Amino acid sequence: MAYSEDELKFMAYWEENRERQGQLSYQLLFGLPYGLLFSLPIVANFLLGRFWYKRADAVGLSQFNPLVLVLAVLLISVFVAYVNRKFRWERYEQKYLELRARSGKNT
């Protein structure tokens, strides 16, 4: 079965980049901006919360440890970055293997 031009470009791209994009360091490095974007509303909610309910802010800040917030944001960011990039890698790998199987070539 003949491949379309997009499929051929994808196969060439994925053959060159699949090993590099499968590495944990690559997944974290390129997924971290997405992870930080995902955890940004947590920080914004904390910082803006003092404007909408003063009493809750006073009670919350009396028992607040900023290290916990920073650690939580970092953990959430790293987790989302890893899961996002790993899912993308799996999706591309599945597409690549399906295209290869269509031609009768096995990996």
Mind explaining what this structure looks like?
Helix 1 packs across helix 4, helix 2 packs across helix 3 and helix 2 packs across helix 4. The longest helix is centred in the C-terminal third of the chain and has 38 residues. Helix content is 87%, strand content 0%. The mean pLDDT is 87. The protein has four helices and no strands. With 107 residues, the protein is mostly helical. The protein has one domain.
Secondary-structure map:
Elements: H1 5-21, H2 24-52, H3 54-62, H4 66-103
Helix pairs in contact: 1-4, 2-3, 2-4
**Low-pLDDT stretches:** none
Span between termini: 18 Å
Helix and strand succession? Answer: HHHH
Number of distinct helices: 4
Mean pLDDT score, rounded?
87
- Over all CA atoms, what is the radius of gyration? 21 Å
Largest sheet: none
Helix fraction, binned, reads over 70%
User: Helix/strand-derived class?
Assistant: mainly alpha
Tally of distinct domains: 1
The quaternary state of the protein chains shown equals single chain
Shape: elongated
* Total beta strands: 0
Give the strand content.
under 5%
